[in-house]
Design goal:
The complex is a heterodimer. Chain A is built from three helices and two strands; from the N terminus they run H-H-H-E-E. By secondary structure, chain A is mainly alpha-helical. In chain A, strands 1-2 form a two-stranded antiparallel ribbon. In chain A, helix 1 crosses helix 2. By secondary structure, chain B is an alpha/beta fold. Chain B has 16 helices and eleven strands. Chain B has an eleven-stranded mixed β-sheet with strand order 1-3-2-4-6-5-10-11-9-7-8, with helices on both faces. In chain B, a hairpin with a 2-residue loop joins strand 10 and strand 11. In chain B, helix 10 packs across helix 12 and helix 10 crosses helix 13. Chain B is globular. The chains are: A mainly alpha, B alpha/beta. At the A-B interface, helix 1 and helix 2 of A face helix 10, helix 11, helix 12, helix 13 and helix 14 of B.
């Protein structure tokens, strides 16, 4: 099923992905092409089939909750594009009232 | 033996000479660095080099070797794909969004190789976030195939495959989510192996699709690949999906030959659409070699093969859209920090930082997971994954291992498939089933077509690395096709 430009814009916002001018058309066309191939999945009857999320049987493992060394604050912040007083700095997350 | 000859030998031979004291690790490093200086401006396998590591690690290996000690890879020059974190070494996943990122820790797989004595030469090029089949999606530059510089090396681990093929590293690490080790190994004429999902810890691997990703080795012999794999394997408290299995089990009876083994030839793989006649001829010849060694070739079927690509291109992008949400311009890497508000920060950083293919997959995955489409796409694909897994389970009732071509084609010219995403995705049609089902698989060189390498793929049941290695090793020995170092021209 082909994607509209509006749907592309909606998905891009969900993914927090800015688009360049003209990319709505490009992605609408390319994603529609890929989805055209993917639509063959609908031909299979899977009503009684359980989904697979994890393909290898691995038992859940929990470690003991013991205190141990981790990264220091300085190490954790070392790659930060912007920091302030030991925190990651970000632009305002709320508009002023 | 000249210095350049040291770039053409196997790990096994190098270790023999190192232990005899005929050569030192420093000699091996110098030989590889000289070759890199001569050739890598053409091949472009590496993104960056790590002289501070190779000097320290080679000196350490030589000290241990002189004392009659040293691990199973003491002094061996190694290249590492740009998706595996190494403490203090810039690691970018081939992306602009991670430019300048220096991880505060080292991936478990790499750490284990360091402890075994491997010497890191540098970081190899790859498709951005390991998404691609040609290394043309690297945000830095494309890597060239050492056998024909006008052609791609395959991908996404193209830099690692090319480095080993060009004699610029003795071993290399790659990652395989849909074929990203096996396909470039085939196209570059080297050995490349993807382990069973869970065999190798993924801690410190920059995630693409977490239920499919595995780390594995490139080498110029099956024995060498087996050693690297066994060193990396085993339980890691830092990856809850790593399996508690003995690392050495991958080597169980792997040198016993194929006499009496049943090798399944899936007709859907043998007759796959778009397979080149030269590739088919090389595979036919390989089957004859295996038969002469006493293996029986049996007909098997993987009836849902036609749906594999479709299921994969929902599941992998869905997982990638979730994994790549962390690249938000706040914690590391590129940031449009002067944005007006937080949403603009995200939108602008991710527009500037991600390349075309990554954005295409993030969009596809986000769409497949979005309200109203989840059942039709994501849930459906997970159910089809069950069917594909079942196909393999049934096939392995009739055979010990499955054999096919690794890639339907030999290396293609740069630019040939960059405008058509679906054509690029079809490169992985014979490999991605192994990821969906979590199987171990290897690609070994099996001759050439028009002068370009062809790879034979061997897939085994889960945890059957030793079976896969056994078939590959028997073939390598009987065919007398040894991976060679390309005379880059």
């Amino acid at each position: 099923m082909p994607l509209s430009k509006d749907e592309v814009r909606h998905v891009a916002l969900l993914a927090r992905l800015g688009l360049e001018p003209g990319e709505e058309e490009l992605y609408a066309e390319q994603l529609s092409g890929i989805l055209g191939h993917i639509d063959r999945l609908q031909k299979l009857n899977t009503d009684d089939i359980a989904p697979t999320a994890q393909v290898v049987e691995v038992a859940s493992r929990l470690r003991d909750d013991e205190p141990r060394a981790s990264l220091s604050q300085a190490e954790a912040l070392a790659n930060a594009p912007a920091q302030h007083d030991g925190f990651f700095r970000v632009p305002s997350i709320q508009e002023e009232a | 033996m000249t210095s350049d000859d040291l770039t053409r030998i196997t790990v096994k031979e190098a270790l023999r000479l190192l232990r005899l004291g005929t050569i030192s690790s420093a000699d091996l490093v110098t030989a590889h660095v000289e070759r890199i200086e001569r050739l890598d401006s053409k091949v472009k396998a590496y993104l960056r080099f790590t002289p501070e590591l190779w000097e320290k690690q080679a000196a350490e290996a030589d000290r241990k070797l002189r004392a009659g000690a040293g691990g199973p890879l003491a002094g061996i020059p190694m290249a590492v794909k740009d998706v595996l974190c190494v403490q203090g070494v810039e690691t970018t996943a081939g992306s602009q969004i991670l430019k300048g990122y220096r991880p505060p820790y080292t991936a478990t797989a790499v750490q284990r190789l360091f402890e075994a004595g491997a010497v890191m030469i540098g970081v190899t090029n790859c498709d951005e976030f390991a998404m691609g089949s040609s290394t043309e999606n690297s945000s830095y530059f494309p890597t060239r195939n050492p056998w024909d510089l006008a052609r791609v090396p395959g991908g996404s681990s193209g830099g690692s495959a090319a480095a080993v093929a060009a004699g610029e590293a003795m071993i290399a690490l790659g990652t395989d989510t849909g074929g990203s080790i096996r396909q470039p190994a085939a196209l570059c004429g080297v050995v490349g192996m993807k382990p069973t999902y869970g065999r190798v810890s993924r801690y410190g691997l920059i995630a693409f699709a977490s239920s499919l990703d595995q780390i594995g080795p490139f080498a110029r012999s099956v024995d060498d690949a087996a050693v690297v794999l066994s060193v990396m394997s085993g339980l890691d408290a830092l990856d809850s999906t790593s399996a508690d299995r003995a690392p050495m089990e991958v080597l169980n009876s792997f040198d016993r030959g194929v006499k009496g083994m049943r090798l399944g030839l899936p007709r859907e793989y043998y007759e796959v659409e778009g397979v080149e006649p030269g590739v088919k001829a090389a595979i036919d010849a390989a089957l004859v070699v295996l038969q002469k060694e006493g293996a029986e070739i049996v007909d098997v079927s993987l009836p849902h093969s036609d749906y594999g690509l479709a299921a994969y291109y929902i599941i992998a992008p869905a997982e990638c859209s979730s994994n790549l949400a962390r690249f938000d311009g706040v914690k590391y890497g590129l940031s449009e920090v002067d944005a007006r508000n937080i949403t603009d920060l995200y939108m602008h950083t991710r527009r500037k930082g991600f390349g075309a293919e990554v954005r295409r997959r993030v969009m596809l995955g986000t769409y497949a997971l979005s309200s109203g489409y989840y059942d039709a796409y994501y849930l459906k694909a997970q159910k089809v994954r069950t069917l594909i897994k079942r196909d393999f389970d049934e096939a392995f009732q009739k055979c010990d291992a499955i054999v096919s071509a690794t890639s339907p084609t030999v290396a293609f010219p740069l630019g040939a498939k960059t405008q058509d995403p679906l054509a690029m995705y079809l490169n992985d049609v014979l490999t991605l089933g192994g990821n969906l089902a979590g199987l171990p698989g290897i690609s070994v060189p099996c001759g050439t077509s028009d002068g370009l390498p062809v790879g034979l793929q061997v897939l085994g049941p889960q945890w059957g690395e030793n079976v896969v290695l056994r078939v590959a090793r028997a073939y390598e020995e009987a065919s007398e096709i040894k991976p060679e170092v390309a005379d880059v021209a």
